[in-house]
Amino acid sequence: MGSPTGDLLALSDDHLAEILIRLPTLADLGRACCACPTFRRVVTDHSFLRRLRALHPAPLLGIVTYAFIPAEPPHPSAAAASTFADAGATDFKCSFLPFRDRWRSRGGRDGRVLLSAIGEGSGGEEFDERRTLVRDLAVCDPIHRRYLLLPAISDELAALVPQQEMVRFEPFLAPACEDDVGCNSFRVICLAQCTSKLVVFVFSSAIGQWHASEFDGWRALTAETSNPDPGFESELSTRYYTHRCFCWLMHWIQKMLVLDTRTMEFSSVDIPPGHPMLQRAIVGAGEGRFGIFTLGVDMVYGKRRPVHIHSLRYTVLQNAGQDPKQEQAFEKIPLPTNYRYNIMGVAGGYLLLQGIPKDFILFPLSERPNLDCFSLNLKSFELEWFCETKHAILLAELYAGFPLSLSPPTI
């Protein structure tokens, strides 16, 4: 009688795939992938990875900042995240790039990191890259230490953007197409916000070229803005991604700007009134709708002094054609007391919060405690401790992915 492993190896790749895809957890599949070359060949095949990601969306593993900060036990992502925390396992700083000091990270997606070159202005002073059309961009694979230098945006395309009107230039990574998962193709999008127009430049790795398009409705959308300085202050919030759309809340009007990556067309969605200074995050809701989390605080009057109770408030926006005044507000989610909070971002099925003790600034610098981060599961609304950090982080670069054994090269 042959061994169980030998019997499995005698099967075709298609039959092996049908068996391996049924393993209950990513940890089980990771161990199988490391067991023998045949299993690894099947598991790392692009078609298998597409099926895998449909069943197991990439979980949030950690925070990329001055170092990789992994999810810690007992969080469900801790086991997969631990492989990334090992010294030398990854290089999220992309130090393998030529002239590394020229580059700064612009964020990551699907196992890749986008970087832009730091330029210099007159007199050798560093320019304001937020308001400058950046020509030098690179995409890196921090796990396998590979990179691709992108061709520069041509002068012809760059001429679509009046530099004197530039308010914000925002490059970011995007998926390539509906069936891109597990493939080495990707897109880079550059959003150029000007006072009079909104232009997007799109690079596709499949064809190796840039093209550009303009949002015709930008001037009408911002016609009634209350922006005190539209020539300097951006109309748009932090960027979020859901339902294959990039979304920005607009600071000065009750709208959300949406870029559909399938059609590369812009639209706007009405949102309920809210205080512009409150932190908010956009997530996917059921039936293709968008949900908004708002970080709020209520004042409860106790016997001695008022107590501030922090919570997350969740609102689901109606689909197009429905009355925007009939938003569905779900339950208010209470947060642990004795903290004030920052929304760090959304990735891998979680919203991540950093809790800062209310008396944090009273500690001497050398004695300040580590700060706790909490993750909110976007399906169950369960709040869990995620990790701790040494510093306060307002907007974090979050890494969602799979264990190293299930992460083939992306470039």
TrEMBL record:
Q: What domain of life? A: Eukaryota
InterPro entries in the record, alphabetically?
Answer: F-box-like_dom_sf
Q: Which PANTHER family match?
A: F-BOX DOMAIN-CONTAINING PROTEIN, OS07G0554500 PROTEIN-RELATED
- What's the protein name? F-box domain-containing protein
What taxonomic lineage is listed for the species of origin?
Answer: Eukaryota, Viridiplantae, Streptophyta, Embryophyta, Tracheophyta
Organism of origin? Urochloa decumbens
